[in-house]
Design goal:
Elements: H1 2-25, E1 37-40, E2 49-55, H2 71-83, E3 87-93, H3 99-107, E4 116-120, H4 123-127, H5 132-150, E5 154-158, H6 173-192, E6 198-201, H7 221-238, H8 244-248
Parallel strand pairs: 2-3, 2-4, 4-5, 5-6
Antiparallel strand pairs: 1-3
Length: about 250
């Protein structure tokens, strides 16, 4: 962190100028259209699995046109077919929010009961320069609040993307944001590691600019598909074998 502070001072004027130019000239893509809740019905004797998705622009599906090609809907469909059970899902996401702002955003919304919380946050903590300890404190507060409100006890948390490879950002701003993202991601992994009911999903594989959306910043359709499969796998592995937790909340709807 000390090195990053020194870099920020030395490169400050250049980083500030490049940041202003990127904000002024960046291609603005809309959030994916479509429903933000749903039920994937599978004829099964098992109770529904309930998922709550919370995040920023990537969770909102920026980079694809419809929610069917974004994360929440795809994860629900993959899990329903894999587990042979119905999956109910709810999506709460907003472009531009950092983790502290996501807490405020979710606080003001109606939440359905959920068994698993799935999150994607952090990029805007980088751009808003939240310190690593603030980022983790904000994340912990968000998870605790959601768990208390919806009854979830499991969380699958995505790491930060490889911002050092984002083609829409010029150097040295790209290097600086990428290194800062790595610092936050390392802190995220340390926080998650000892917690048996949490799982971490790395996004460092999303490094091919050709697979990104037209803005050169958000995931494209192929990346969302890969990401959804990784999330579904983590959720399936995190679920109790006999599903006692899920059964506890089976009557929540």
């Amino acid at each position: 962190m000390r090195f990053m502070l020194i870099s920020k001072v030395v490169l400050g004027p250049v980083l500030l100028a490049q940041g202003r130019r990127v904000r002024r000239t960046a291609l603005r893509l809309a959030e994916a259209a479509g429903e933000r809740s749903g039920l994937v019905v599978i004829d099964s004797s098992q109770p529904e699995l309930k998922l709550l998705f919370v995040g920023d622009s990537t969770m909102a599906g920026v980079g694809v046109k419809h929610q069917s090609a974004a994360l929440a809907s795809q994860v629900a469909s993959i899990l329903a077919n894999r587990l042979v059970r119905s999956v109910r899902w709810q999506l709460l996401a907003k472009s531009g929010v950092n983790t502290e702002q996501a807490f405020e955003f979710v606080t003001g919304r109606e939440l359905l009961p959920a068994d698993v919380l799935v999150t994607a946050l952090g990029t805007n903590d980088v751009t808003s320069q939240r310190k690593p300890h603030q980022f983790i404190s904000d994340y912990e507060a968000l998870v605790d609040m959601v768990f208390e409100r919806v009854g979830a006890r499991l969380a699958v948390i995505s790491g930060l993307p490889p911002l050092h490879l984002t083609p829409a950002t010029p150097q040295p701003l790209r290097w600086y944001l990428g290194r800062y993202a790595q610092l936050l991601d390392e802190g995220l992994q340390r926080w998650i590691a000892p917690q048996r009911k949490f799982a971490y999903v790395s996004l460092q594989w999303a490094s091919n600019p050709k697979d990104m959306a037209a803005d050169g910043y958000h995931p494209g359709e192929n990346q969302y598909r890969t990401w959804a499969n990784l999330l579904a796998e983590k959720i399936a592995n995190l679920l109790p074998k006999q599903n006692p937790l899920i059964e506890t909340h089976a009557s929540g709807f």
